[in-house]
Structures are given as structure tokens and as C-alpha cells.
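Reply to dn_fold:

You asked what the input looked like. This is it:
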Amino acid sequence: MILACPACRTRYQVDARALARPAGRTVRCAECGHSWLYRRPAPVPPEPREVPGTVDAPPLAVSPRAAITAPPPPRPHQGGAAGGIALILVLLLAALAGLMYFGRERVVALWPPAARLYAVVGLPGDALGGGLDIVNVTSTRNPDGIIVEGDVTNRLDLPRPIPELRVALRDAAQKEVAVKVVDPPKPRLLPGETAHFVAAFMPVSDAAVGVVVTFTAG
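and this is what came back:
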């Protein structure tokens, strides 16, 4: 047989029986001095021969695997739904409380007995002249005195009674020098309606330089 050195590829003619050990045999190249363990390669099994009259068995059928299905979606937690309902109720109550507090003038206008309920909790149910605004106030001085004019406007969408008006003249130090209570220009104002009032001070001190108009109970 022909044996080749794996290092320098020098080829040698050797007796195959000398290398027939099952565990292999150490050989050395006389050309380069390289040593290595030589093992005989395993014999190649012979190919099977066809026997007349035999039939190849069909390939085994492979059963299909079960389809992978997604797990069912989790059911909504009943506690979460209850918490959502509770939150909605809290928000509704907060909105109602805000309406009752900031819109108490309108609440009392719609239901006058509500004023007593507000009084129980220490809140003024219907402020004097609630829903009415005093606007466009002017004062004109003439040789006889001072004429004060202005408008009362209903900003609610409900009819509102007009209380009496308190007209005060003040000096430069904001001290009142003259006060007059005048009747309202009309008893009631319809929604969005405006009424004009006039108050005359004759004679009046020359120190009067300012005017303040408010509602009063008389």
C-alpha cells in the first residue's frame, strides 16, 4: 500500500499487514522526521443488493400535528368595572357640587326654598341682586349738584327682581360724603333685559369726586 507523510507529502510503499493493528501504529517519515499515528480506515459497508420478488415498503405516514390555537382572551375583571362606575359617580357628584356652589344664584332663582339649605351649610344662597349687574355708571356735575346714572342688566336666563340701589359719593380718600337709596328702575328684569336708573344729589359737597353703586335691602 502507499503511505504519504501528512507533513511533507513524501510517499512510501509499505506492507499493509504491518499497519493492520486495530489501535493503529505510530510511523515516522524518513524524509522530514514527522511522526504520526496511522489507523486503517473503517471498511465501507457493501451496498444492499436487490432481491428478486421483494417490494420496497411505502414510507411511514406522518400524522399532522394539532394546530396551535391562541389562548382565550382574559375576561375583564369585575372589580375593574366596579371601580370605573365608582369613578364616574364621583365625577358626577363633583360636577353637581360645583354647580350647586358656583350656580347657587340660579338654583335659588329656580327653587327659592334652596336658600334655606344654603344657609344651613353657611353659604349665602341668593346674594342680594344675584344674577344682576350694575354697569355703565357715570356721574355728571352741574351748578346744582351731581347726577349719577347707570344700567342694571339681568345676565341670567330667568326673570330676576331688582333690589333698591345704594348710591354713594366719595371723596379723594374714598370716604363717603353723601349716600342715597333709590328705588329700582323697575320691579323685575326679564332674561337679558336692561333698565336705566338715575340718582340726583342736590346740593352736594365739592369734595365728592367718585361714586359707588350697590344693591341694598333698604
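Helices lie at 78-102, 104-110, 114-120.
Hope that clears it up.
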